Every structure is written in C-alpha cells, then in structure tokens.
Amino acid sequence: MRVTAGSGARSQWDDPKGLDALPLPLQSPESVTIPLVVAPGPRALEDMAFPFEALSDIAQIESWRKEINRPLYHIHKWWAQRLGTVFRAIVLGAFAPSGTDMLDLFYKPVRIKDAVVFDPFMGSGTTIGETAKLGARAIGRDINPVAHFLVRNALAVHDRPAILETYRAIERDVADQVRRYYSATLPDGREVDVLYYFWVKTVDCPACDTAVDLFSSYIFARHAYPKRYPEAKAVCPTCGAINEVRNDAREAHCGTCYATFDPQAGPANGQKASCPECSHIFPIAKTIRETGRPPEHRLYAKLVLMPEGSKAYMPATDEDRALYGEAQKALRNRKNPYPVAAIEPGYNTNQALGYNYRHWHEMFNERQLLCLSVLADRIRQIEDPILRELFTCLLSGTLEFNNMFASYKGEGTGAVRHMFAHHILKPERVPLEANLWGTPKSSGAFSTMFEGRIRRALDYADDPFEIRLPAPGRKGNEKVFGLSEKIGFPVAESYSAFAEGKRVYLSCGDSSATDLPDGVVDAIITDPPFFDNVHYSQLADFFHVWQRHILGANGHWQADTTRSEDEVQNADVGAFTDRLRAVWTEAYRVLNDDGILAFTYHHSRPEGWHAVLKALMEAGFGITAAHPIKSEMSVAMPKHQAREPIDLDIIIVCRKRTQLTPHRWNGDLWGTISPVAAEQVQRLRGSGRRLSRNDVRVIVMAQLLRQLSISHEMDAALSSLDNANGEIEALIAELHAAGSKEISTNAERD
C-alpha cells in the first residue's frame, strides 16, 4: 500500500526540546519539511527509551526483501549490507534531542541541515544514503575499491533517459549474439529459449579411470516448499532421462530405459564418492587435487521456456553439446576476452584453491566467458564515463549468478542460488548455468538485473519510501512516500570540493588517514567489519578483476587485488584491534567535541568484545548507550546453518571521554548491568521476538562494555572484562532460561 506523508488525519508534533513544532503537512510533502536544529546536549539515541523493539519490527520487514525495500544499496553485491530502517533511525537519533518521540519522528519529513555525517566503513553505502535522504551532508570512505565503486554508482546523478537508451543500444547490438548460445530445438522443430543448463562435476575414479558424476542425489529440481509441492525431477543414472518423482522417494523407475534406481543416493556421499563401475570408494577433494587442474563438468539437463510460456525439463542432447562447442570455438577467436588474474590464498578462497581453481576466470565455463566477453567489449565502448561505470556495475553484478559456483534453488523462488550463499568460495558439485542475457522468466540475468536492480534503484532514488507496519486489524505493510529527499548528487572526490558545497564526498582508502580537517564531523555512523568473519577483500577480488578488465588498470583498479595490509578485517585479533583503534583515533580527531560515534556490532566470541572495548578506549571514547536492534540477516545461509544464530546487532553509542561527566559507581558491576540487560531482553520478548542464547549474549556484553568504558580506566576495564567470564555466562543463562520458560508456559497455555 502506498501512502504519502501528510495523508490521513491531521496530527500535531509538539517538542519540548526546541524543535520546530509543526503540523504534519497536508499539502505536498516536498514543499513542507521539518528542520531538525542540532543543539548541544544529550541525544535521543542515548535514551534508555530508544524504541529498538518497534524499529526492529520495521527492520524485520525490510530484511526479508532488502533488494526491494532498499534497492539503492543493492545494485551490486556487498557483504553485511545493513538495514536502511536501522540507519535512518540512528541518523535521526544522533541529532534529535533527548526525549524526542523517535517513532513519531521516523515518519516525519525531517531535514537535518548543515550537519556532516562520516562513515569510515561505508560498505554498500547505507549510512551515506540514509544521511542524504534526511538532508544532511555525507562523507563515505572504504578501503575496498569494489565498495567505493558501487556506492559511487548508487548515489551519482543519473540521466534516466540516457540510461534506458544505452541499455536499448546494448540490447540491439549484442543481445541476439548472446541469446543464440541459449537456445534449443524441440522434437517438433520449434526453437525455444533455454532458461538454465544443469551440469555435474565429474572426477575420474583412481582405480578404473571411469568418470564419476558427483551427484549426492539424482534429484536435481525440487520445489522450495517440498511438503506442499512434493513433485521433483530426477535424472536417470543409466540413460540420462528426466523423470518425475516424489521429493522423498527412495525408489524410482525410469520411464525411458525402465531401470530402477534410488533417487536419493548418488555416487557422492559427504567427502567421498563411490565409483558405479568398480565400487571403489575414494576421497573427492584429494582426488581432484592430484589431477592438478580444476574438475571437469558434464552437461546433463536443461530447463526450456516453451512457446506458450510454460517451462519444461529436458535431457541434454547432442545439439546442446554442439552449441556449447561453438561457444568454445568463438571464445578462442576473441582477443583478450577475459581477465587473467590469480586467486590468492586466504580463509575465504582456500576451498576453491583446494579444487585447483588458480585463476578467477576458471570459475566460469567457456560459454559464460564468451558471453561476458561480448558484453564487456560492448560496455567498454560507451562514451559517457558515468554510463560506462553504471553498466560495468551491472555486468559485474551478474557475475554472482553466472558462474560454475552457482546452483539451482528450484521452483517457487528465485531460481539461481548465487555463489556467495555460503560466504566462502565453495565449489558446487551440481552447478547451474543460467541464460546470461535472460528472458522475462529468468533469474540473475543481465536483462532481468537491469530491471530488478538498476531500474528499481532509479525509481527509489527518485521517490524514496519507508516501510510502516499495518494498523491493528489491517493487512499489508505500507510504503510511506514523501519523507525523504530525492537521491542523486555530484560526488566530490576531495574534501576541498566537499567544503565548497557538495553534499556527498566519497573516497577509497585507509580510514585511519583521511584528508578531513579536525572537528568538521558532527556524527560518525558506521558498521565496522569483524575480525574473524567474512574477509570481504578476498571475495571482492572476484568482481574487481572484471571491473578492471572493462574500465582499465588505472585509478582504483591499478592492482590485481583489493586486499590491503591496512584493512581492519584481520584473522589475528591483535592486528584487528590495532587497526580498528587507528580508525577510531582518526574518528576522534575529525569529530567535533559534541559529536557522537555510533556503530552496529555483534559477536559471539569474547575476543570480539575485548577488541572493540580496547580500540574504543585507546582512541578516547566511552560508551553512553547500547541498544539491541534487528541485524541484516533473515534469510542468509550461514544464519540457518548456525546452532545459535545471532539475529541482533547492538547499536553502540559513544562520545569522547573528555566530554563525559565522571561516572559515580558503587562498585556493584553486575547489579548495574543486569537490570538494564534484563529490561532490554524483556522488551524484545514482549514485542514477540524470540532470542537465541547468542542474542542474549550480545545484549549482556554490550551493557558490560558500556559500564566498563565509563567507570574504569582502560587497563582496569579490560582486566574486569577478561575476568568476568563466569558471571557473564551465569547472567546469559539466567536471562535466556527465563525466556525459554516463558515460551514453554505460553505454548502449554495455547
């Protein structure tokens, strides 16, 4: 449902703290906005009553379809893309005075004029976009060139007619050339588009040299909701025919060769495979490594789009294999068709290296490389640099879905499971090759991603909206328009250009050393990386080498890799702490004395909390507030695989310790922390949110850090933190058990 700010009943916003008291506008919201005058003193983000539970409910809705509800930050893949709802609230709360009704303010057309917000870890640009929507000025910096590239494309001024015309020109010039490699002939002679090709990795049996298909199950296509739709497709291991079976069937009879087989049991079982020819059992990864080359693949099936619009699964034919051979030949005849860059060892790349993938281009088959090459060459010819970069960003984004590490999700959902679903470069044993140009019924294709990412982002930039939960008794969430400024700015490339009046300044580099003068920032709002989680640069290189291939090895694309010795993310906790402290020290320098540093964070390990506390206190910051809030993950694979998944972030609010009143504390550390943590847990549960043990942990740890940072000197604070493990675990167990008991009691009552 679409609503506009100011529609409906008239209401009054009265603020006792000095904000302009204005009625909700009944005329066009673009002409009437509410200025938020920033004044010294406590801020709403530091209030205990900050409505994190209600904001989490709104953020929850956004999190299910982030690419639709905040498309501007999803024109290209980035990791840990934080929720716009959360960061809008943080920006507002960092400037609104204490006592402000934050939920009321959230849905007002507020403008924070002349304030400057800095994000030193800008990632996908959520802070920058939400700041700009509220009328403030934004500075974003990231050490990774891919992040800098995507944010610059998202926030730039775009000429919509020129973008559409450029897309149509690309379509006229190369679409048919790409489409021909994704076509098939039906038995009756009609030609159809192939939506997806299905491949399986093969490895030669060490005992008899038979090529063994690495199927763990012969069922290759099932519905996303198998209990409701139990029909599935299985490939016959004897003749290769496609058979319809039940998703849970243990016996199937091939309708073509009449062989009987167990569709659940393929040759691959865990880390080992059994040769169907000689029954020899062998380790898969070790056998592949010993070949010295990436594994081979066999094409066994396809999904075609029938002329009347239905879809049909069919076995691969000699015609399909001949067409693939044509693509191989065409690729060999192209000059410099793809980037040749080595994959460097690392936590997130070692699994691919273990399967002998040594270069990034080896993650694609030759048809994919050919079609990507055709598109890359055409994009390189675009004269306007802004358009050339935008379409490079689009092609770079399609890489995520068009490679031999992608897989099939099945019917009833987006068909392609992208290669980063596991946050590592995990070789896929049954990869899916999508139609790279695409059809209206395709997923992850160049054409569909233009519609689903670029055009959707342009629409949002022209008319941003917020999500509002339905009123009691009503169904469906509302999209509230008219609250924010249109997005699209000439981006400054230096602070001097920004100082002359530009609204947005983006830079790529180490955030511990910036060109910002002392004290020019009013708030620093960010989401720092973790020390032991996904190493963004190791994965971002997958995109970087193609961006460099199209745009040239200059500027931020001079190096083969985005990895840097200066990046904060590091597997070593000591190095992570030192580098985070260096960024916070620079933040301290550029932040004015009345400014706030606010960032989102969570961690399940003590070292993660120790590192944050030490880095903050060494830089001169104390924590004034900590609020739990919905994190970005709702459908991520790692969350579903975790035994105690973390669904919450903590908004950690800091000020310079020199500006804090000395804290009076009676020495009862846990008596101070426990009531606050218990109240936050109860508020979240009272809103209907179930908390894992690790969710409770992040609440307890954040409150402990808050107390220690303002009542202890650094050495004493760190010592107390390190020695508090027993009390921490006891409090977590107590708070978590109370919630489990409450859930059990409610279930019995129901």
TrEMBL record:
Family named by the database record: Belongs to the N(4)/N(6)-methyltransferase family.
Keyword NADP: no
Biological process terms in GO annotation: methylation
Positions in coiled-coil regions: 714-741
One Pfam family this sequence matches: N6_N4_Mtase
Reactions that this protein is recorded to catalyse: a 2'-deoxyadenosine in DNA + S-adenosyl-L-methionine = an N(6)-methyl-2'-deoxyadenosine in DNA + S-adenosyl-L-homocysteine + H(+)
GO MF terms, alphabetically ordered: DNA binding; N-methyltransferase activity; site-specific DNA-methyltransferase (adenine-specific) activity
Domain of life: Bacteria
InterPro entries: DNA_methylase_N4/N6, DNA_methylase_N6_adenine_CS, SAM-dependent_MTases_sf
Claim: Cell division is one of the keywords in the record: no
Keywords: Coiled coil, Methyltransferase, Transferase
Known EC number: 2.1.1.72
Domain DNA methylase N-4/N-6: 113-145
Protein name per Swiss-Prot or TrEMBL: site-specific DNA-methyltransferase (adenine-specific)
